Known about the structure:
Layout: H1 8-11, H2 20-63, H3 76-108, H4 115-138, H5 154-173, H6 182-207, H7 214-247, H8 254-271, H9 283-295, H10 297-311, H11 315-320, H12 322-344, H13 347-353, H14 357-387, H15 394-426, H16 433-439, H17 441-479
Amino acid sequence: MSTAPQSNSQSVNPYSSQDAAERAELSQIDASIRSSALFFTVSAIFWLLAGTVFALIAAYKAHEPSFMGDSALTTFGRMRSAHLNAMALGWGNNIIFAVGLWIMARLCRSPIRHGGMLTIAGIFWNLGLTLGIAGIIKGDITSVEWLEIPHYATPLLAISYALIGVWGIVAFKFRKGEHVYVSQWYILAALFWFPWLYVIAQIMIIWFPARGVVQSVTNWWFAHNVLGLWLTPMALATAYYLIPKVLGRPIYSYYLSVLGFWALAIFYNWAGVHHLIGGPIPVWLISAGIVASVMMVIPVIVVGLNHHMSVVGLHKEVWRSPTLRFTVFGAISYTLVSLIGSAMAVRTVNEVTHFTHFTVGHAHHGVYAFFSMIMFGGVYYMMPRLLKREWPSATLIKLHFWGSAIGITVMVVALQIGGWIQGVEMNNSEIPFLEIVQNTMPWLKARTVSGVFLTVAHIAFAVNFFWMLFAAGAIRAKQGPTLLDSTSEEGAA
């Protein structure tokens, strides 16, 4: 992260330090992780496209159940679960492994050691995920939300993650200097939190199931914390790295960063239980979840204030930068989705939103509008520095941004407005249930339309990425690797 203002030309330089030795060091670090980061990014984009296909099928079948109804392989339950896991474990984890480890290496000023082993671990992660999603489509689904991957694929995923996650920890151990940046706090914590969540949930639900309602409590503890203690800290780490780097100014307040980090770590772990309001769960446990969810307002406001004050006065620079365009959209979405989530934990609100499409819209708001948009920004910043060339098409970048922004906005608005109406009607005993179902159809069709926008955006992103990748490969094959200090993803826009 930057510690001093820089000129505009420096802020868009892949190696923006005025120190030539530091630029050379960053180049060496990028070279050490290039192959692994590219592998994980390619894998992430593959799963993004696959997850998009599954999502389109599931969205259309929600209001047209007969669509592709001749095959059990394409039932709504299997397509939705395949979509969820392809996006969360395929797109989400792979892009975290690419961007997160790259940021960690750069901030530690430490080249990645034995990068070939990191790539091998990544290959096994994606093989395990492929086996798991194929099992879901085949029908070997576990029927536990966020843990639908069949049990025979999970050991491979767990072992692969252990081999991948240790690289971030090793890089931190061998860092140069004693200062630890905000982004490093979040990345390092998340690298410990995710295996803890995943292994405990697998043991208590799949391998050695706990009895009774303990399974439900464990399920929501895991599902909610995957977003809050894995995807969220990785996205915030990326935002805390990108905003100062591109703008060339330090983050607004170090002390607000400390408060935001520890408040997230303390409160979010309890928050998922509020999804079980009304269930046969001890009242004290539900109440603890509600209190923790409401207390999450603290880190959300703190992080939002820190990000806003870091960009104040430079809004034109934000709009001009493809990286910050996505990142700031995601940062704003983090504030909105988190405040809505805290409101949903209040019993009177939960009575309306529970068991409705409102919750589905809320999940997409967090995973896509917040997490994915920031990670898109991370890719737009990382790739020119790895490949030493600009993004080939500014038009495709704009198409990606507007397709994603419009698509996810339409989806969230449609599902949350439709879901709220659905909840109000479900609480009215005089309205027949089938009439309520029929009334949701226009909102579900709007969701399908939003999926078309997102599909166009993802295709534009993939085309631009592979165009850049193959062009860089062709040049390198002819000329060999060179350091192009003037290369920048910002210039493409």
